[in-house]
Amino acid sequence: MSTNETRKPANAQWGGRFASGPSEVMERINASIDFDQRLFAQDIAGSRAHARMLVTRGILSSEDGGAINAGLDTISREIESGEFTFSAALEDIHMNIEVRLRELIGDAAGRLHTARSRNDQVATDFRLWVRDEIDAVDMQLQALQSVLLDKAEAHAGTIMPGFTHLQTAQPVTFGHHLLAYVEMFGRDRGRFADARARLNELPLGAGALAGTSFPIDRHAVAEDLGFDRPVANSLDAVSDRDFALEFMSAASISMTHISRFAEEIVIWCSDGFRFVALSDAYTTGSSMMPQKRNPDAAELSRAKAGRVFGDLLGLLTVMKGLPLAYSKDMQEDKEPVFDAADSLALALAATTGMISDMEPVIENMRNAAGKGYSTATDLADWLVRVADVPFRDAHGITGAVVKHAEDKGIDLIDLSLDEMQAIDERITDDVFSVLSVEASVASRTSFGGTAPDNVRAAASDARTRFMRD
Ligand code: ARG
Q: What is the CA radius of gyration of the chain?
């Protein structure tokens, strides 16, 4: 690129002291309009509230205030209908809107920026955007919990193997397994709600960094825009991006839950397991292998977690070295947040659809649940409860019984009483009542346990906690 290219005239918004305009490269690195146009509705809402307050405080005439409002109506319509021409030379959404406003209403437009800077303006717009997004994510998470609850109730008694180390551990119910995710997504909602509460303070009125000499009313603007209060410190107001980081932190943790579930679905529909059948709507075929049905929606939901973590780490890195107050580095806050929000929304939609369509293959789950000596703990517990054996000893005796069954290549329940008594004579016929997977799950009645009755009660409790509004 030549350094002596023809220079453009200076920027009309801030170029008073500039003899010429930016180089083409400067314009490109400086412009954010390609992505921050997503803030247009929030920018217009912020401007309306600011103008209303300026009128109330006698800083702006009501005539100018009316003209500004009417102009913003037109701009809003133009952007929504796709007629608006965005210009990179005007850098960002704030100046694109302001310049258009001047074209539409003339000089009054120039008064809108009284007692305002783009620094407090963008911080306000972005908080409003993230706040809206949090509300949308909350609804999506609730919808996901709702399909999980429906499935959990339908399968409160459907038995599957529970795993630790991905080795068969103890039988559980499919409903119980699904309810574990209802809790995770419930905590995710809590994290987003916490972030929303901390975010809900108004930056506007901080000016560029130091506040303003105009007799503004930040509390009125805060109320107007649905914020709980103005940000207390003007330097903090323009330089804080914690709200964006918190949003992406909450999104990252939620993505780990989505990703873990996606991983389970991938495992469950593999040939070795065949625990679930996915619908045509959430799977794809192979262009070469006609027999294939691939769980792409699960795989991509799992992969999106990586993107969202990257988005968070990217902005953490941008922010960590910035002195107060505003630095242009902070313009790089938007793309990661948009990407994280889009990725989370898509992964949530895909996961919700996939789970709502997903059907367990009950027979395969039940058969697998009986494998791997999954009721060995029930035998040990029986020795403790009925024969008064200390648990450590019971563990050893059961180990010997398992070893014997393993040597014979049969399940615990298929051993004869004689064989078991040869290992420990205290074992009686009653032991067979605890060795089936059905008996095993039915016995797990402790609070939070997997017994079908517990699962039904837990699902109903979860409905009252999570589905109220
Ligand atoms: N487009 C800018 C951003 O997103 C707006 C604030 C610009 N402020 C400034 N002092 N140049 O951060």
A: 31
